[in-house]
Design goal:
With 438 residues, this protein is an alpha/beta fold. Among the domains are: 1-40; 76-146 and 185-198 and 210-232 and 292-314, no CATH class; 318-436, Rossmann fold. Helices cover 40% and strands 15% of the residues. The protein is built from 14 helices and 14 strands. The chain has helices spanning 3-22, 28-40, 58-67, 77-94, 102-108, 118-126, 213-229, 252-261, 274-286, 317-330, 344-359, 378-386, 400-409, 428-436, and strands at residues 48-52, 113-115, 131-133, 150-157, 170-175, 198-202, 239-240, 267-270, 290-293, 310-312, 335-341, 363-370, 391-395, 418-421. The strands form three sheets. The chain has a seven-stranded mixed sheet, sandwiched between helices. A five-stranded parallel sheet has the order 7-6-8-9-10, sandwiched between helices. A two-stranded parallel ribbon has the order 2-3. Helix 3 packs across helix 7.
Length: 438
């Protein structure tokens, strides 16, 4: 545990022990021990947040765990699975793994006969039927800019063990605004295929979103297995190449993209971080290769000049901003503080969250944007505490654990006031990092 975290937990333990003593405890040593345990466990209990999520079937979760037996989080696994399946169906429809298959992707997800499994969809395509793939992650229903118009959000809650309490998860169906259904973006490029669908990936094995890596890679592996078990694409097995994205503070994604483009990939799955995607999107699309993210949510990507080659199976934060605001105000919060990382994801979601909170009649008493490379957050948390909110929304990645530790130290943690998270931090990885003082 880092020294700063030790000091914070120790200070909290002493405070709790003093409170217990003031209340007339008969056994000071027992109370101190109990306070220490409380200081290092359960401080996230009650923290609530949103993430694109559907109620996954037990069968799908079991099959994901066959890919990774250590898996204990399913964030964006379904979206990754669907991203690969949609690509495979589009290549099947186009009869080519060249750039022209990108023209089929949006249509695969809407305005046709419903199908939910790769083999059933392929059989319909072979019969000349226009299909509408409804995936494991939901109905998809892509707009002309390659992003879903419909979404399901999980409302997630941390339990007393600082892990997500699955029995407390609820779901909200949501749709993008009507004007988000834009016309088809023209596909540009001349890259030809070689008859073997090869799919690369830039997903987080390291960096601030590394906790999302295991479920995304499990979804990646399972989709390719299911497709190949059903006969592959264009009569040949699909080839998967896994690679690390790192985060926006490194050039890991760029190096991975270079390596995968040299291996003649037809698509790259990722990145998880919108900020990382924005660092490599031009390189990928200039090569005539499809980039398909299972987790990007920044609205900046909705209008990016991507040659019609960028797609995502996660909805824009225009939708999440409205859903999270509803969750917060439905809980009765009226004066809200927002703390968000300074990147395309953080500032975009903070803007949409504030807009929707105010539309719901709430007041944003302070909004703090922090450097995503920061390692301490005392100044930001002090300012939030001084603003006296009745709820705090944290829009961040792995660093959210440090923000929460500072909030606990200063008396505004989840056990003191309502605290809310988002898809960038609502996972068991947050609880593990918090417990480890990281």
């Amino acid at each position: 545990m880092k020294q700063s975290a030790v000091r914070r937990f120790a200070a909290l333990a002493i405070g709790l022990a003093l409170v217990a003593s003031a209340c007339g405890s008969d056994d000071a040593s027992t109370d101190t021990t109990a306070a220490t345990a409380t200081a290092s466990n359960g401080e996230l209990e009650g923290m609530k947040g949103t993430a694109p999520l559907v109620a996954l079937s037990d069968d799908f979760k079991a099959r994901l765990k066959e890919m990774d037996p250590a898996l204990d989080d399913y964030s964006y696994a379904a979206e990754t699975y669907d991203s690969i399946t949609v690509i495979a169906l589009a290549v099947t429809q186009a009869k080519s793994d060249g750039v022209e298959y990108a023209k089929e992707i949006n249509g695969i997800t809407r305005d046709g006969e419903k199908c939910t499994e790769f083999k059933a969809c392929v059989d319909l395509i072979a019969a000349g039927t226009d299909i509408d793939y409804d995936g494991v992650s939901g109905p998809l229903e892509f707009s002309g800019n390659g992003e879903p118009l419909k979404a399901s959000y999980g409302v997630l809650v941390f339990g007393a063990d600082n892990r997500l309490a699955e029995d407390k998860t609820t779901y909200i169906e949501a749709s993008a605004p009507a004007d988000a259904d834009v016309p088809q973006v023209a596909v540009e490029g001349t890259r030809t295929g070689d008859g073997v669908l090869t799919i690369g990936s830039i997903l987080p094995q390291t960096g601030s979103l590394a906790f999302l890596g295991p479920p995304e890679f499990a979804g990646f592996d399972l989709a390719i297995k299911d497709i190949n078990d059903a006969g592959g694409v264009l009569g040949k097995p699909v080839v998967g190449i896994k690679g690390d994205s790192g985060d926006a503070t490194t050039d890991t994604a760029s190096k991975t993209v270079d390596a995968q483009l040299s291996q003649n990939v037809d698509a790259i799955i990722g990145a998880a971080s919108s900020g990382v995607s924005l660092t490599v999107i031009d390189k990928i699309t200039a090569a005539g290769v499809v980039q398909f993210s299972p987790a990007n949510t920044s609205k900046k990507l909705s209008t990016y000049a991507d040659k019609g080659l960028y797609f995502r199976s996660a909805p824009s934060d225009i939708v999440q901003g409205a859903v999270l605001a509803k969750v917060i105000t439905d809980d009765g919060a009226a004066n809200i503080a927002i703390i968000a990382r300074n990147d395309a994801y953080g500032t975009g979601l903070a803007e949409d969250l504030q807009k929707n909170l105010e539309a719901n009649g709430a007041k944003v008493v302070i909004s703090k944007i922090y450097d995503e490379k920061a390692t301490t957050f005392d100044a930001e948390v002090d300012a939030i505490k001084a603003a006296a909110p009745d709820a705090v929304a944290i829009i961040g990645f792995e660093e959210s654990s440090k923000i929460l530790a500072t909030m606990v130290e200063k008396g505004i943690g989840p056990k003191a006031i309502r605290v809310y998270g988002c898809d960038g931090n609502m996972g068991n990885g947050l609880g593990k990092s918090f417990d480890a003082g990281e």
